[in-house]
Fold:
Amino acid sequence: MPELPEVETTRRGLEPLIVERKILSVHIYKKQLRWEIPFHLIKTIKNQIIKKISRRGKYLLVDFEVGQLVMHLGMSGSISVVPSSEPLKKHHHFELKFDNSFSMRFHDPRRFGSILWQKNNEQLKLLNNLGPEPLSYEFDDYSLYNLSIGKTKNIKSFIMDSNIVVGVGNIYASESLFLAGISPKRVSGKTSRDRYKKLTQCIKKILSDAINNGGTTLNDFSNVDGEPGYFSQILSVYGRNDMPCNRCDGKIKKIIQNQRATYYCPQCQH
Structure:
């Protein structure tokens, strides 16, 4: 599943290609994704100019004068910008044709992604109550500790909660906890302030490194040019079950937490 670095990589790739471009036409080829694509988009954003593209957690927000397109890549989604004359591929569900003979196309084999709309001065419910961005100043050394007080869930599930902090998905939660030397099984409410301070710094580092390296090559993810990310080449624990730990003489172990795979080193994560 594309996580925050993959979405940010997509945003950065799209920005110079679509901002200030005029929409000549909108095409909905398969309306039913996770939710139905609003049919009114065909008229609403026709002849509109894209003002900006930003990110909130794992959502891409495309700004127009009349509102925002809200896109989520789901489990297998990707977005590409290609010549409009290029033939459509299977699982291309949505297309914006621009005034420069190029198109932005949304591709999603599993159809768990979403393309929604919000008017100016309105916000979709799914964007309500989101926690701070992990690379922002708002996510500081004490954010996690203060929110953990009294919590009983394991620390990995805690940092993956989008109400606590957005965008720390399964891969990067495992990697951040490894870098911080914290067991994913540790109870979130019984973790010290100092350990949360270190974990905060590790989350910022892991996500920043992943963004700089173009995201993670797993399953279907590719960036806006169709090229795979390559952060997976330097993953320390994720997907390395029974392989040697690169920090001690232990072995990486895989467990299931909240129906998700967790990878960690029992010897050096406590």
